[in-house]
Amino acid sequence: MATAVPIHVSFDADKVKALKDEIQRAYVPPNPLLSSKPGDLGIDVGLLASLKDDFVQRWSYDALQKRINTYPNYLVTFNDISGFDPLSIHFVHAKSTRSDAIPLLLLHGWPGTFFDFHKVIDPLVNPPAGVPAFHVVIPSLPGFFLSSHPTNVGWTILHTARVMNRLMFDVLGYKKYGGQGGDWGSYILRLIGSLYPEEAPVLHFNMFRCPAPKDEDENTLSPAEQNLMNRRATFAKTGAGYLDIQSTKPFTIGLAIASSPFATLIYIGEKFYSWSDPEKLDPMDLLDTVALYHLSGSFSTSVLIYHQSAELRSELVMDTEKWRIKSKIGYTNFPYEIGGAPRSYISAAAPLVFYNERTSGGHFAALDNPTGLVEDLQSLFGQNW
Q1: In which residue ranges of the chain is pLDDT below 70?
Q2: Catalytic residues
């Protein structure tokens, strides 16, 4: 049986210095290349200049390292995955002192990392009396941060879902657990909810892609749901180009962006600012994310998920019967989400028992509305566990 080994996360000082030196030397055009609305054609150069200054003058690797190691980090290696090389998974495991705490698997997506959840760990693990508490498990997905990626052809998020269940069930010994996820994490959770409903009976999503139910009348949507449909349409028209290149030529984009921390900042920064609540996004969260990708050398492997799981992702989006979710699910509609769905859509696709609309937050909900996410997790599990 695979055994988790405690680790202390750190990176070589010379590598950290090289990152900041490269950022400092990077060129930012003094003016926009074309006259356009900020953000319409990609990252705004004024914003980029500000982010560069923040990276050089305000961002602290020591502070990031300290926050990462505030909670126990582990590596576990699975040597017995049929047809694949051994796979090492990095994860954080923060346990509550409460005897009634609920094991909770938190799954990130792209271009996020496990560290997306750092603001919600303490309020989930150490809540006030009378509120559900959680044992929090936060893995880095295969190919992200310190988790390895199989070099064999054929790995998909279906394999990842099985590994995540093994992590919770076999490695950590939990007999039952809940889950939360957005972006790719939401697709993996959907597979878990289809394959392992007894082990994972309650799941929460902040992204859920599914077709409209038959005879759906969009005139009955709430204002918040109409907003999310508009966000989806705008994203499909003007923001989804990265999906095509990462699904078809992941080596090209992966190696190009990974070659420079400034390129990583530009590429990921555009996503963060397009998909987040502009009133809530902390630029330090973006800079931490860029640093984690660059220092771990994982950007080029992180985008492989788009190529390897493209077909399965399409199945999950369009054919909710093939991978029918059997677990109870909850959903929170954050207004700046790009992949949301109205209540009626989700109800037709899964056993929806909780639906809430928030007035702030976006695709990276754990970063730009951690309080709202925690409250909704506590409500969902308090009512359904």
Answers
A1: none
A2: 183, 306, 363
